[in-house]
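Q: What structure does this chain adopt?
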Amino acid sequence: MYPLRIVLASTSPYRRALLERLRLPFEVQAPDTDETAQPGETARDTALRLAQVKARAVASFFPEALIIGSDQVAELDGKRLGKPGNHGNAVAQLLAMRGKSVRFHTALALLNTASGALQTAEVPTTVHFRHYTEREIERYLELEQPYDCTGSAKIEGLGIVLVERVTGDDPSALIGLPLVQLAAMLRKEGVAIV
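A:
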């Protein structure tokens, strides 16, 4: 067994469920971070910065641990899409995305607090949305209520019916934690997953 604890710096139930797939023991610690984008920062850079900020935010609680930070920023026509938070915002996002492609920038940071080593990566995914109707939007929102999902698109749930196709290297990245990349990072730290 690897001597360092594994800590997920996140309150996301989606990231927690994804990390459980690796069948490694881990702890969860909520990071207290400001997720506001900085002026002039690209969506990709915001995601990368926030993944690192989240990992570092909990580092003082775990002096000998591997801390996982992750963040996702969606981009449509050069504009960021955040979590809608309510029905009206979700309708507006889904109308804007209809028939278009949205780029999801999912960033990952793995911080070894014992050595100070930091690994980072950004795993992009492009989602091509179909031309769905306003009735379909309302029905989807009624059934799924994805108000805590970036871009209102809960792809791991009913949101998949709004999609025409997905382009990317890691399907778990779209849900919020790129497991292919994380597994590679953990192996670099000596963690045997299987």
